[in-house]
């Protein structure tokens, strides 16, 4: 029975290791990326073959409109400079291309490129290295983005905007905020004016992209709004390099609806498992480590009417140059002659901050993917947030969280540790019985079971504390890997990034030492081979932990240290009880 208990404990340890490896490999991390065949070399224009709705196919940049009638508008806009529009807020520096009105570059000012760099993290870009852009416009019967001559070139007021250009605007909640509006205008020869406006709010990442159609022509205008994310197959720039391991999370597309909150779509499956869903309140996104870009369809507002949410079609596809495109398109918008209509959508590109994402769309906050243990991970993250609010340091927050978790589990784990302590106390008696009965294994088993019954010992109880820790350990791994709040977060001294491995390997060595001390408090296996395996387990786990996030190793050290204290106290209590009982038996 004792041998089976040892095997169960060893098995549980290796299950932890195996599940952690799966956390890298299954759906996460090192999927081989297809090399980019035709890297973009244009920095000022995301150009390409952008036909209208009549000839659009799944391989083109602009999505195919529902209405395939003949394009009726003509381009009457005078050529303007192709200089990009620069927009700088307190959160990012962003560039918009007047041709098509696409966002072609975003630098996140509050997030550095890496922990050793002062350069901002580049979220979107279009250059020789990488193509990752956010496109939007109007397609369909009269949509200017369906023009056979190419996408529209908007007239612009100026090419540079900052928060100094923002105006105070009162929101629906009654609060006043500074909103920066960047308008662009496109006019057709028959009197239709399209005003495309990007609205930025100070202190917020979401951008509201509004299309206002002013129909001064004598004909009905009809079109659809689209918003899409276009990305090549390059690697995730947000993933962490951890020595021989590359730790990263899911890279690919994602979408959600009020019915199906969160769904992932690998780049390789953009055609085979093509997204084709229609929903009100849905969203589409590109997900990477710590960051996400997403389009959330908004409202359609006709003249003298309140805005109404619209049912958007969510789709995915591959372009001819193997670009990955995930998009939404609105239903057809009819604007009678002499009337005005507006259609908008919200664009988000930035860190995966759950509190912000959950207010944008149902399920968008689940792009912070905690895996199948997300209920536990969510509680752990909330605990970390609470302690961070008190101490202002994520490292100390991990320590305080560990203490809290151990206190909560103390009564449950104490029973298991008490069983292990009893096993430790009766170990000499077990050894004596083994020597006495020698090869008579049946007699030895009978005497051993009688001893367990007499001492009220359950040999499997030692597995319980470890089984309790397994889901917490795995859930915390995902919290550290997915929570952007802990990205490059320092603790003290040499630990300047809790989400990366310890550069000096001090924490893994301390973890191995605490594990060795903890095992010395456990009953030692009677079998010599098992004893040797248990002795080298601290060494194996030390090597294993060398490449894990420092925050996770810190948790394990604190957990081991508290376990040593708890197990030491229980061992003394059990030993004291046994001595009292032996003294009472001798007196009788």
What would your notes on this structure say?
The chain is α+β, with helices and mostly antiparallel strands and 588 residues long. It has two domains: 2-24 and 377-578, no CATH class; 34-369, Beta-galactosidase, Chain A, domain 5 (Distorted Sandwich), CATH 2.70.98.90. 33% of the residues lie in helices and 26% in strands. It has ten helices and 24 strands. It has helices at 2-25, 354-357, 374-391, 394-425, 427-437, 441-455, 463-482, 506-520, 528-545, 550-587, and strands spanning 85-88, 92-97, 102-112, 120-126, 131-139, 155-156, 160-162, 167-170, 176-187, 192-201, 207-215, 221-231, 240-242, 245-247, 252-256, 263-265, 276-280, 283-287, 291-302, 308-309, 311-318, 324-329, 333-335, 340-351. The strands form three sheets. Strands 1, 2, 3, 4, 5, 7, 12, 17, 21, 22 and 23 form an eleven-stranded mixed β-sheet that branches. Strands 6, 8, 9, 10, 11, 15, 16, 18, 19, 20 and 24 form an eleven-stranded antiparallel β-sheet that branches. It has a two-stranded antiparallel sheet with strand order 13-14. Helix 3 (374-391) crosses helix 7 (463-482), helix 7 runs antiparallel to helix 10 (550-587) and helix 8 (506-520) packs parallel to helix 10. It is elongated. This is Membrane protein insertase YidC.
């Amino acid at each position: 029975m004792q041998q089976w208990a040892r095997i169960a404990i060893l098995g549980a340890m290796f299950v932890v290791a195996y599940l952690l490896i799966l956390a890298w490999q299954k759906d996460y991390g090192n999927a081989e990326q297809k090399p980019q065949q035709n890297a973009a070399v244009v920095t000022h224009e995301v150009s390409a073959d952008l036909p209208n709705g009549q000839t659009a196919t799944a391989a083109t940049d602009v999505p195919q409109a529902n209405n395939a009638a003949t394009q009726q508008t003509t381009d009457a806009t005078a050529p303007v400079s192709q200089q990009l529009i620069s927009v700088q807020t307190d959160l990012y520096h962003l560039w918009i291309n007047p041709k098509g009105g696409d966002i072609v570059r975003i630098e996140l000012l509050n997030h550095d490129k890496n922990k050793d760099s002062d350069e901002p993290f580049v979220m979107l870009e279009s250059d020789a290295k990488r193509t990752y852009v956010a496109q939007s416009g109007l397609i369909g019967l009269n949509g200017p983005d369906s023009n056979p001559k190419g996408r529209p070139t908007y007239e612009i007021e100026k090419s540079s905007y900052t928060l100094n250009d923002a105006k105070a605007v009162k929101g629906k909640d009654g609060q006043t905020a500074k909103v920066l509006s960047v308008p662009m205008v496109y006019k057709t020869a028959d009197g239709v004016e399209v005003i495309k406006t990007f609205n930025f709010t100070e202190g917020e990442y979401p951008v509201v992209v509004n299309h206002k159609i002013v129909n001064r022509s004598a004909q009905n205008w009809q079109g659809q709004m689209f918003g899409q994310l276009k990305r090549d197959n390059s690697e995730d720039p947000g993933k962490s390099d951890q020595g021989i391991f590359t730790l990263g999370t899911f890279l690919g597309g994602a979408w959600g609806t009020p019915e199906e909150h969160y769904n992932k779509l690998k780049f390789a499956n953009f055609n085979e498992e093509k997204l084709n869903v229609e929903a009100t309140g849905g969203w589409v996104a590109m997900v990477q480590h710590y960051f996400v870009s997403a389009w959330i369809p908004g409202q359609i507002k006709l003249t003298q009417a309140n805005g109404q949410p619209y049912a958007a079609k969510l789709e995915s596809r591959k372009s001819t140059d193997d670009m990955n495109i995930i998009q939404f398109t609105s239903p057809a918008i009819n604007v009678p002659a002499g009337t005005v209509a507006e259609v908008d959508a919200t664009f988000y590109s930035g860190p995966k901050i759950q509190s912000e994402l959950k207010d944008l769309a149902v399920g968008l906050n689940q792009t912070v993917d905690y895996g199948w243990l997300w209920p536990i991970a969510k509680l752990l993250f909330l605990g970390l947030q609470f302690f961070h609010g008190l101490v202002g340091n994520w490292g100390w927050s991990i320590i305080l969280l560990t203490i809290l978790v151990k206190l909560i589990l103390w009564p449950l784990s104490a029973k298991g540790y008490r069983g292990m302590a009893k096993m430790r106390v009766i170990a000499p008696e077990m050894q004596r019985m083994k020597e006495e009965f020698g090869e008579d294994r049946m007699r030895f088993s009978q005497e051993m079971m009688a001893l367990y019954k007499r001492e009220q010992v359950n040999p499997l109880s030692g597995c319980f504390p470890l089984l309790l820790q397994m889901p917490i350990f795995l859930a915390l791994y995902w919290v550290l890997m997915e929570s952007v709040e802990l990205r490059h977060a320092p603790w003290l001294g040499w630990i300047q990034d809790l989400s990366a491995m310890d550069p000096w390997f001090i924490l893994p060595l301390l973890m191995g030492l605490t594990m060795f001390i903890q095992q010395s408090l456990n009953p030692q296996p009677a079998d010599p081979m098992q004893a040797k395996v248990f002795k080298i387990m601290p060494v194996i786990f030390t090597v294993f932990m060398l490449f894990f996030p420092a925050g996770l190793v810190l948790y394990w050290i604190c957990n081991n240290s508290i376990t040593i204290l708890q197990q030491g106290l229980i061992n003394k209590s059990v030993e004291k009880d046994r001595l009292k009982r032996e003294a009472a038996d001798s007196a009788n």
